[in-house]
Design a protein that fits this description.
Blueprint: H1 3-12, H2 20-27, H3 31-43, E1 47-51, E2 55-60, H4 67-73, E3 83-89, H5 92-101, E4 109-115, E5 134-140, H6 151-168, E6 173-175, E7 179-182, E8 185-197, E9 200-210, H7 230-234, H8 240-261, H9 264-273, E10 280-285, E11 288-297, E12 303-306, E13 312-315
Parallel strand pairs: 3-4
Antiparallel strand pairs: 1-2, 4-5, 5-9, 6-7, 7-8, 8-9, 10-11, 11-12, 12-13
Length: about 325
């Protein structure tokens, strides 16, 4: 017996006691086996109160991310089912690239409590302090032609926005191509890096950085007016495991819809969440700055930008 089902039973009690006899019966093991698994949960950082004739009560959860807690919270078929947890890494992207080359399955996940070299688009650094955010990378194996690659950052941003809304109730907007915004400030960044052969994507590493419980002082001075966190916006601390589980569930659901129905549903969802449609935009691309008015997405995932001369042309987000 692993501790996942036991943890679920204690969580379902919502702070109440569950007798050892009831746990033993539900799990199909002896009460001694239940007690041994309780001890393992305590070693994972869970606070469990034991009272004679009442049983066991979940009194507290670990502040650090727990593989056992994620497994208990997941409602996905594939995404996050194989996961590797780290206390501190340079970048979860680099670790997942290596795992992908070794044959990691689609949905494989790398999570870190802290990154020392987190990165964003176009080589920008990403602030990822210990224990306060969601710093993770998710593996996709879409087997798509390279021409459809610009659709994936848009899909990812919609899925994450939906997951955040489910977990926190906060309505997050999207900013082309892959920033998520709250109150005009960035709360999440997404970085997609790919490997391709013969003009087709072999795999895509999707880096997700969500500023969950950062306080204003956690951001460097140059970002204080540009960045925020879910905690700052909501006034309460975010359950990071619940947030990760919600994002993975929304991502898997939308990804499967995309594979079945194509880009059209994702396009509509992205445009509904976009904060800059029909407004002036200044886009920094590898080819330079593009200025104009955003008018929507085209069928391939390009952002249609109307220039000053009235011409409309797409701008694409390119995977690395």
């Amino acid at each position: 017996m692993d501790g996942t089902l036991l943890l679920k039973l204690l969580e379902e009690a919502e702070g109440g006691f569950v007798s050892g006899e009831a746990l033993s019966r539900r799990l199909g093991v002896s009460r001694t086996a239940v007690w041994k698994q309780i001890r393992k949960l305590e070693e994972e950082g869970y606070a469990i109160e034991a009272v004679p004739r009442l049983g066991y009560r979940l009194a507290g959860k670990p502040r650090r991310l727990s593989p056992l807690a994620l497994e208990a919270a997941l409602r996905t078929a594939r995404f996050g089912r194989q996961a590797r947890f780290y206390e501190c890494v340079g970048s979860t992207q680099d670790i997942l690239h290596e795992w992908a080359r070794e044959g990691a399955p689609e949905g494989a996940l790398v999570i870190a409590e802290r990154q020392t070299s987190g990165r964003g688009r176009m080589g920008r650094s990403w602030v990822s302090p210990a224990g306060k955010g969601v710093w993770m990378s998710l593996l996709l194996r879409p087997e798509l032609p390279l021409a459809r690659a610009p659709q994936l950052p848009l899909l990812a941003s919609v899925a994450i926005a939906r997951g955040i809304k489910t977990a926190t109730g906060l309505a997050v907007s999207v900013k082309w191509p892959n920033d998520l915004m709250l109150d005009g400030r960035k709360v999440c960044g997404v970085l997609l890096e790919s490997s391709a052969e013969n003009e087709r994507l072999v795999y895509v590493v999707t880096g997700i950085g969500i500023s969950a419980n950062l306080d204003p002082e956690d951001f460097p001075e140059e970002l204080k007016e540009k960045a925020t966190s879910l905690k700052t916006a909501s006034g309460r601390e975010t359950d990071r495991i619940g947030l990760i589980a919600a994002v993975l569930e929304a991502f898997e659901e939308l990804y499967d819809l995309y594979r079945e129905k194509g880009f059209a549903p994702v396009r509509l969802m992205w445009e509904a969440l976009a904060e800059s449609l029909h407004r002036p935009v200044e886009l920094r691309t590898p080819a330079g700055i593009v200025r104009g008015t955003a008018r929507g997405l085209d069928d391939s995932g390009g952002l249609l930008v109307e220039r000053e001369d009235g011409t409309i042309a797409p701008v694409y987000s390119i995977l690395l």
